């Protein structure tokens, strides 16, 4: 199946897919990263079904892995290398922690899918810590064709520059924002990443900086914090990956929040007040979705420093 012309049920066209339409509408990326404090990455060498964990064997294992992940707070994802498959090398798994102050990625060998159960239950070694960042590019075409059409060229670009850091992955959420890239262990979600900027994004991360115009937010933080960080950066505050950490989140009436973010070098706090609004749009949010649909939008009310 050619990614340049994916067809689903004879109807899919890249220029009218959910990602292309969202791009043209100018859908906001702000605070759209889904919750993902921890990840379980599972290297898979079989074709991914729409429900990714259904690929695990024996049958029924995927449901048990999903149950344990929900219980333990992991987001599971299948991964594979772009354009190369070395069946002589052992498959791998990874446990990633994106929580502030605990950021880490641990890699281990995966002799069988069933090995995931003792790993999750704490009865097997969790793997060795790696200091290398991980770039996950969603290419899950059976979940949404836009993810494959837009994701695979981005995966190719990143794999060309960073072959050991880059993995294609299954669904990460936000199909209309394809190409979606997740950077671990910080849990940064980027959306609408064009091929021409994929390596730029990775270089900025190596320098410890985010790319604000492509950033959806960090899955380690709730949406109001993601929004507050966005507005603080837009106002000229730090763009460093590990700064503007939340110190307090206060819920106010009417879907308003006040978020205290720590300024660099113990220089105080920036307090951001935001509100969330639900908008109805005459559009589908996935290629298989229906219109109208509801989207959440964050609005800035104030920024003060103390």
From TrEMBL:
Pfam families linked: Suc_Fer-like
Gene3D superfamilies: Glutaredoxin
UniProt superkingdom: Bacteria
Name under which the protein is recorded: Sucrase ferredoxin
């Amino acid at each position: 199946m050619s990614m340049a012309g994916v067809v689903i049920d004879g109807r899919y066209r890249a220029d009218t897919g959910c990602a292309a339409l969202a791009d043209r509408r100018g859908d906001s990326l702000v605070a759209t990263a889904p919750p993902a404090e921890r990840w379980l990455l599972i290297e898979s060498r079989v074709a991914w079904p729409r429900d990714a964990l259904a690929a695990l064997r024996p049958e029924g294992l995927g449901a048990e892995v999903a149950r344990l992940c929900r219980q333990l707070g992991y987001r599971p994802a299948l991964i594979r290398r772009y354009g190369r498959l070395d069946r002589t090398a052992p498959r791998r798994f990874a446990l990633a922690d994106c929580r502030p102050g605990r950021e880490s990625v641990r890699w281990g060998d995966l002799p069988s899918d069933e090995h995931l159960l003792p790993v999750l239950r704490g009865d097997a070694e969790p793997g060795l810590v790696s200091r290398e960042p991980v770039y996950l590019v969603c290419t899950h075409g059976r979940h949404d064709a836009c993810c494959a059409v837009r994701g695979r060229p981005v995966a190719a670009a990143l794999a060309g520059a960073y072959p050991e850091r880059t993995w294609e992955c299954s669904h990460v959420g936000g199909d209309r924002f394809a190409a979606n890239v997740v950077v671990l262990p910080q849990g940064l979600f980027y959306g609408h990443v064009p091929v021409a900027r994929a390596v730029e994004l990775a270089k900025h991360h190596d320098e410890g900086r985010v790319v604000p115009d492509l950033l959806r937010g960090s899955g380690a933080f709730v949406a109001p914090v993601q929004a507050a960080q966005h507005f603080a950066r837009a106002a000229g505050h730090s763009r460093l990956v590990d700064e503007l950490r939340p110190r307090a989140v206060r819920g106010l009436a009417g879907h308003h929040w006040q978020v205290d973010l720590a300024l660099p070098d113990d220089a105080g706090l920036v307090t951001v007040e935001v509100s969330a609004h639900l908008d109805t749009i005459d559009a589908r949010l996935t290629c298989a979705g229906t219109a109208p649909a509801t989207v959440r939008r964050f609005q800035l009310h104030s920024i003060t420093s103390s």
